Amino acid sequence: MSEAEAANSASSGSAVDERFMRLALSLGRRGLGNTWPNPAVGCVIVKDGVIVGRGWTQPGGRPHAEVEALRRAKRLAKGATAYVTLEPCSHEGKTPPCADAIIKAGVARVVSAIEDPNPEVAGQGHARLRDNGIVVDVGLCADEARRAHAGHIARITTSRPHVTLKLAVSADGKAGLAGRKQAVITGDEARNHVFNIRAQHDAILVGLGTVLADNPQLTARLPGLYERSPVRVVLDAQLRVPLSLSVISTVRDVPTWVFASQKASPVAEEILVSKGARVFRVDDTQGRLDLDEVMKVLGGEGITRLMVEGGPTVAASFVAADLVDEFVLLKGPKAIGEGGIGPLEGMALDRLTGKLELDGTEALGADTLEHYVRC
């Protein structure tokens, strides 16, 4: 059976199949931001209508979800159905292929949401399962799975991470006070929500201006989430970030990667490296770093999901380069007034929202969140 035929056969999967696949998707999301460079996969093993094993990709990307679920199911996996959010791997990496583990366990049927675009897999996992007598259905909850694995798909197909831009604006559409001074726009519920979003990303990016103006920690400061804080990425063309600021002084706790121009001081680089930061050099044009090159480096380092939380200059540069895949817009209830600065350096927000689709809105206390995704 071809992948297309299998997808068609699974597209009208039973309500029972869909329920278990949605559970697998929910389990997989537990790993977002915590499994890179591997995808955050979920797996549920069911026998006679009873869940006998559950798993999700573990921190650092191993063990894989299927292996975790099989470990819990033990002998009950024989004759069972496995629901998995991404095609089981078929290649030998740092661990044996998940497809082989499924075959060895005697699983009778696999319901897989989508094929893995990784050329080392790309249908071969499904084929290996079928060749060993396992029934394979592909395509159930495929749209949700593609969104859940957007980072993995982006890194494999475009060599860059999936980019989420977060902005906060006042009731009158401003992002800061006159003179680029920081303004408190949203409340505690919105702030805590942002911490949760950070924890679901592999890295968070800001420009030097934000670091100098706000001295941000760029961490997920909620109980149980701090250790899941993303890698901090700072765009600093001339390597001017002060060593006393949080992104450098706490680098032993949360990694910081600094991107600089090829022309930046080698002495400054040596000092930052001695403090524990990593420095990457890319080309620049009139002091502005080449974002495409930054994205390729991040992808090469294994980053699959990048959150951009810089000021208007960085945000506008990502919009202008058409690098935004997902957009989180927080709207506060109070106006800033005359002299406040816009969120995109004078660029209209519809320059961004016009390329994206509104996916939903949510009230966060007195604030409102709008979520947009690439059409």
Short description:
The protein is of the alpha/beta class and 375 residues long. The chain has helices at residues 3-11, 15-29, 65-73, 98-105, 124-131, 142-148, 150-158, 188-199, 208-214, 246-249, 266-274, 291-300, 312-320, 350-353; strands spanning 42-47, 50-56, 81-84, 109-112, 135-138, 162-169, 203-207, 231-235, 256-261, 278-282, 284-285, 288-289, 305-308, 326-331, 356-364, 367-374.
Index terms:
375 residues, alpha/beta, Cytidine Deaminase, domain 2, Dihydrofolate Reductase, subunit A, nine-stranded mixed β-sheet, five-stranded mixed β-sheet, 14 helices, globular, 5-amino-6-(5-phosphoribosylamino)uracil reductase activity, metal-binding, zinc ion binding, oxidoreductase, riboflavin biosynthesis
Indicate the proportion of strand residues. 15-25%
CATH T-level topology of the largest domain = Dihydrofolate Reductase, subunit A
CATH homologous superfamily designation of the largest domain:
Dihydrofolate Reductase, subunit A
**Which architecture name of the largest domain does CATH use?**
3-Layer(aba) Sandwich
**Biggest β-sheet: count, sense, barrel?**
9 strands, mixed
Rg, rounded, reads 22 Å
**Gap between N and C termini:** 31 Å
> What global shape is seen?
globular
What's the total helix number? 14
- Unreliable stretches covering 5 or more consecutive residues: 1-12
Strand order of the largest sheet: 10-9-8-7-13-6-14-16-15
Number of β-strand runs = 16
What pattern of helices and strands is seen along the backbone?
Answer: HHEEHEHEHEHHEHEHEHEHEEEHEHEHEE
* CATH class label of the largest domain: Alpha Beta
Average pLDDT figure:
93
Instruction: Provide the structure class.
Output: alpha/beta
Helix fraction bin = 25-40%
Number of domains: 2
Organism: Undibacter mobilis
Pathway: Cofactor biosynthesis; riboflavin biosynthesis; 5-amino-6-(D-ribitylamino)uracil from GTP: step 3/4; Cofactor biosynthesis; riboflavin biosynthesis; 5-amino-6-(D-ribitylamino)uracil from GTP: step 2/4
Binding site for Zn(2+): 64, 89, 98
Catalytic activity: 2,5-diamino-6-hydroxy-4-(5-phosphoribosylamino)-pyrimidine + H2O + H(+) = 5-amino-6-(5-phospho-D-ribosylamino)uracil + NH4(+); 5-amino-6-(5-phospho-D-ribitylamino)uracil + NADP(+) = 5-amino-6-(5-phospho-D-ribosylamino)uracil + NADPH + H(+)
